[in-house]
Design a protein that fits this description.
75 residues, single chain, 2,3-Dihydroxybiphenyl 1,2-Dioxygenase, domain 1, mainly beta, globular, four-stranded mixed sheet, 1 helix, two-stranded antiparallel ribbon
């Protein structure tokens, strides 16, 4: 099932049951790893939280996992 929010169709609905979140310094490399393992994910970019690039995917038990990278901000 796909979930539509923020003008984009997403595979993962992070608000359905809650989720656990992790911060990474190299989100691009992590996304490449997920693709190499054929793990689908939803790339929310910074649409939900300004300054955070977020992706969401399901673990093998069906739990939602968020991985985000804090983006550089210019003062």
């Amino acid at each position: 099932m796909r979930w539509q929010s923020l003008n984009a169709v997403q595979v993962v609905n992070p608000v359905a049951r809650g989720y656990i979140a992790y911060r990474k310094d190299d989100l691009a490399a992590f996304k490449a790893h997920l693709r190499a393992q054929n793990i689908p994910f939803s790339d929310w970019g910074d649409k939900a939280v300004s300054g955070w690039h977020q992706i969401f995917f399901y673990d093998p038990d069906g739990n939602v996992i968020e991985v985000h990278e804090v983006q550089d901000t210019v003062d």
